[in-house]
Specification:
about 200 residues, mainly beta, 6-stranded antiparallel beta sheet, 5-stranded antiparallel beta sheet, about 45% strand
Length: about 200
């Protein structure tokens, strides 16, 4: 018998992913449950979507969660947008300028430092806007799963779901820093609340 509750939560999270820190999701994939989605809690990460878009194309590139909590990377009004929704509080980062037409890597890099999250929007690897917030996913992202090219549930951000991407989306890559340790006690509390 093993009565170590919080440590087992962290071990189970590691068991799903092992040493894996890079995920590739292709267009047309189905809804992915949270338990097997990339675990971005308390980690630095980069998300990049490989797209081909024309003027006026917009929509969700990746969305994990729902209206209660989650994150979404999308294009709206010609600009790249990342919305981090933590319990209904939103930290929204909007790109500095319009995304040019054509083939691009559209992304976001998030890192933590001194209790803040530093968010940098990326176009072809170059900074295209940024912000800082005290909000972050320390113990919980969402019970809802992850979608590529649309947001199937209640919307993570202030758009009408599913807000499907109208351009061509080849794939989305998520790369995370797996060195940051998970807080087993806090995650265990979140898991108990889920029951």
């Amino acid at each position: 018998m093993d009565d170590r509750f919080a440590p087992r939560i962290v071990e189970n999270a590691a068991r799903f992913h092992g040493p894996r820190k890079h995920f590739v999701f292709h267009k047309g994939m189905g809804h992915l449950p949270t338990d097997v989605a990339p675990d971005l809690r308390s980690r630095a990460f980069v998300i990049e979507a490989f797209v081909d878009l024309a003027e006026g194309d917009e929509g969700v590139l990746i969305a994990h969660g729902d209206a209660t909590s989650g994150y979404s990377l999308f294009v709206r009004g010609g600009r790249l947008v990342y919305d981090m929704n933590v319990g209904g509080l939103h930290a929204t980062t909007v790109g500095d300028g319009a995304v040019p037409s054509g083939r691009h890597r559209l992304g976001v890099a998030v890192r933590s430092e001194a209790g803040k999250r530093h968010i940098t929007l990326l176009i072809d690897g170059a900074a295209a806007g940024g912000s800082e917030t005290h909000l972050g996913f320390n113990t919980f992202i969402s019970w809802s799963g992850l979608d590529i090219g649309r947001d199937r549930g209640s919307p993570v951000a202030d758009y009408d779901a599913p807000f499907a991407f109208t351009g061509q989306l080849a794939k989305v890559e998520v790369t995370m820093d797996v060195q940051a340790p998970l807080d087993g006690e806090a995650i265990a509390e979140a898991e108990m609340a889920r029951q």
